[in-house]
Specification:
single chain, alpha/beta, six-stranded mixed β-sheet, 23 helices, 14 strands, about 10% strand
């Protein structure tokens, strides 16, 4: 049997069709029955049908309507041709019906008409509740019940899965991957995460060869927590584990445990671990575990019966309950480790915390190799240069760049993806879509050019500022009228001088406007937000201010967020020191740009001419940067033959 046939056979029948058919039958039944009976007048009955002696019985319904039933022989006569051809003209369905004003008057006239008849037609009196009247009472209740059943089935997971029925709402909704469900992702598809792969591969190796570790008395970690920024590959590693481990793999999101009903989350946790024990050895993967793993007691507004806390309590019990030799390993991922409960993070539950950070230069190159493999790229594509041009990009960002490059090349009707397509894709990822329709006046364009040139010159002549990669005045995205892209250094600790240089470089645009035009504009809003955040961080968090001292006020406050860990006097001092720090940086930046005014003007004029300047263009204008080059800069200095020079945007 083919795979498509198997899929068709696996589809379960949807019982909603039965409910719909029954409802339609109930609604249409009274109308169908009424249509199967021919309506006549009272005079027609007495003059045409009563003298024919074909009437079997008359039934007076509710004193207002008479139903006429014919004999079997009468149905074959031409007189009753219309009645005999009706589909429902059998059984207890009347053949004719007509209305009367009064049952006493009708009975008296019937007796008068049959005085000389040999056989008199009998009359019955019946009191009925009409089908339409009955349905008017039944249908509202049926509709309410149907809506209730529908929502309950949706809440409980829908038809055809675990928890599909209303009484299975407490069942786990985890997706099971086993030998019948193939996972194509392997560790070869995971690039730039070598240390994390080693940790995870050790867990996979234990599941395949447990005796290798247990013979030495060791125990496999019960749980591993993947921690890292969004898009760095946490879920991808979990998928690779499912493809490599060859053991049952349960995958579920943290939000799937929490429902509107009390106790459902804890019940689903119990059912999940029950299924896992039956499938052991196996792996349980909970994505976005912070949905149920938040620290208890922080959100006091919900009262004592918090469903999320009950679910977390049950998860803690289950993780502490099963022993390591059963082969059940819990794998979880989150980008919010700071909000997780301390009981969840302790050894014995999540023994290993695997940090997954954004890749470095070599890691980005390997990620480009993975995502560019299925693409039709030109032979002249330089992946090392692309990796150097994408500092701070996560794996998801690089995947998006490769996909955007393919779409851009297809839009240009190219047969291969070239280097300029990747350049355009990187620009779109950073600044957004190029806004060619945005009309900017020459005066505004000149202000933007000097603003971006101010950033570029400061970054060029400040030792600890990030080296410049590219500067452009092409409007992109919603609000970006231009931007300067830098190459951040691969470092984790920043000294005071480095942060001050960063603040000066960020202030370069505002200072350039002040020097050249003697006026300032609103274009520095984002720059001011960044330096304010950096300055307050230096003063209140990192202890880099002599007046405030070596203290850190990085406190989130209480559960309601109403308190602060310092007095009003200290708050006034902090604000004053931040203003002094920013003013000092402003004065320093203004001195630098005043000395380099000629270089500032050269770059601004060239920007007005070309709209985009790369690092090599800046070197031609104002000379090489007078500091030691980073590894990324050395990669960018390598000559390439397929760079297409960007034409000015019309």
């Amino acid at each position: 049997m083919s795979e498509n046939q198997n899929k068709k056979n696996d589809k379960k029948f949807n019982y909603y069709w039965i409910y719909g058919i029954i409802l339609l039958v109930l609604i249409s039944l009274p109308f169908t029955m009424s249509q199967s009976t021919k309506e006549i007048t009272q005079e027609t009955f007495f003059k045409k049908y009563l003298p024919s002696n074909d009437i079997k019985e008359l039934v007076v319904v509710n004193g207002s309507e008479v139903e006429v039933y014919l004999t079997k022989e009468a149905l074959d006569k031409p007189l009753h041709k219309e009645a005999s051809k009706r589909k429902f003209n059998i059984g207890s369905t009347p053949n004719y019906k007509f209305s009367i004003g009064s049952s006493e008057v009708f009975e008296k006239r019937l007796n008068d008409e049959q005085q000389n008849a040999d056989e008199r037609v009998g009359v019955k009196f019946d009191s009925r509740t009409g089908m339409q009247s009955l349905l008017s009472w039944i249908l509202p209740f049926a509709l309410l019940i149907g809506i209730w059943v529908f929502f309950m089935r949706r809440i409980s997971g829908g038809v055809g899965g675990a928890g599909g029925q209303i009484f299975n709402i407490g069942k786990s909704r985890a997706t099971l991957f086993d030998q019948d469900t193939k996972v194509t992702v392997t560790f070869d598809d995971v690039a730039g995460l070598d240390e994390a792969k080693e940790e995870v591969m050790e867990i996979v190796d234990f599941l395949k060869n447990p005796s290798k570790y247990t013979n030495l008395g060791g125990k496999i970690p019960k749980g591993a927590l993947l921690i890292g920024p969004p898009g760095t590959g946490k879920t991808l590693i979990a998928k690779a584990m499912a493809g490599e481990a060859k053991v049952p793999f349960f995958s579920i999101s943290g939000s799937d445990f929490v429902e509107m009903f009390v106790g459902v989350g804890a019940s689903r946790v119990r059912d999940l671990f029950k299924q896992a024990r039956e499938k052991a050895p196996c792996i349980i993967f909970i994505d976005e575990i912070d949905a149920i793993g938040r620290a208890r007691g922080r959100n006091m507004m919900q009262g004592g019966n918090d469903e999320r806390e009950n679910t977390l309590n049950q998860l803690l019990v289950e993780m502490d309950g099963f022993s390591g030799d059963k082969g059940i390993i819990l794998l979880a991922a989150t980008n919010r480790p700071d909000v997780l409960d301390s009981a969840l993070m302790r050894p014995g539950r999540f023994d290993r915390q695997i940090g997954i950070d954004k890749p470095d230069l070599k890691g980005r190159k390997r990620i480009f190799e993975v995502h560019s493999k299925p693409l039709k790229t030109a032979k002249s594509i330089d992946l090392e240069r692309l990796a150097a041009q994408t500092p701070g990009f996560a794996g998801a960002d690089i995947a998006n760049v490769c996909n955007e490059a393919a779409l851009i090349a297809a839009r240009k009707n190219k047969s291969e993806i070239e280097m300029d397509d990747f350049q355009d894709a990187i620009d779109r990822n950073i600044g957004g879509l190029e806004r060619k329709s945005r009309i900017i006046s020459p005066e505004e364009k000149e202000i933007i050019a000097f603003h971006e040139a101010g950033h570029a010159v400061c970054g060029w002549f400040l030792e600890h500022a990030h080296p410049l990669l590219k500067v452009t005045i092409v409007p992109r995205g919603i609000a970006a009228l231009g931007y300067a892209q830098y190459i951040p250094k691969e470092q984790f600790l920043y000294r005071t001088g480095q942060l001050l240089d960063e603040i000066c470089m960020t202030l370069g645009g505002r200072v350039a406007e002040d020097i050249i035009f003697g006026k300032i504009s609103t274009g520095a809003q984002n720059d001011l937000e960044r330096i304010t955040k950096m300055a307050y961080g230096m003063v209140t968090i990192y202890g880099m201010n002599e007046s405030v001292g070596n203290v850190s006020f990085n406190d989130q406050g209480d559960a309601y967020g109403f308190s602060k860990p310092y007095s009003d006097e200290t708050a006034r001092m902090i604000d004053e020191e931040v203003r002094k720090l920013i003013q000092s940086a402003y004065t320093r930046t203004k001195k630098l740009l005043t000395e380099k005014k000629e270089e500032l003007t050269k770059i601004a004029r060239k920007l007005l001419e070309k709209e985009i300047l790369f690092k090599s263009d800046v070197e031609e204008l104002i000379g090489p940067r007078p500091f030691e080059k980073t590894e990324e800069e050395l990669e960018l200095d390598k000559p390439i033959t397929n760079v297409v020079e960007t034409e000015p945007t019309s």
